[in-house]
Write a structure and sequence with these properties.
With 126 residues, the chain is mainly beta. It has a single domain, classed as Jelly Rolls, CATH 2.60.120. It is built from one helix and ten strands; from the N terminus they run H-E-E-E-E-E-E-E-E-E-E. The longest helix is centred in the N-terminal third of the chain and has 4 residues. The protein starts with 9 loop residues before the first helix and ends with a strand. This is Signal peptidase I. InterPro entries: RmlC-like_jellyroll, RmlC_Cupin_sf.
Amino acid sequence: MDDRVYVGNAGADGPAEGGWLLGHFMPPGDPRHSTDVEVKWGVHQPGEARSRWATGERRTALLVLVRGGRFRVELPDRTVLLAEPGDYVVWGRGVDHSWYAERESVLLTVRWPSLPGYRVEPPIRH
């Protein structure tokens, strides 16, 4: 077995790390360990919301709606609605944000770089 290769399933592996599949928080030596990028497979139930706004952001982020219906990304000056598979939003460093799942939604999130200290509490239900 090559320890430079990891084969898994996002739905099975993600819950152990809050949906995160790749990033600085994976053990050193694990092929999923990276300080360059983070990747998340997020499965959000209706009424789920980010536990608090992300402020002082030092990363760039891409969120892509893979499956589901209505996922709101709250930004300081507007709300972006991801409603069709393939809808996405990108924001850069310094953009505060939050989110809310109006309907069950599956999203792929990519953030870079992968920086320690950005974990927040699990999502809340409204």
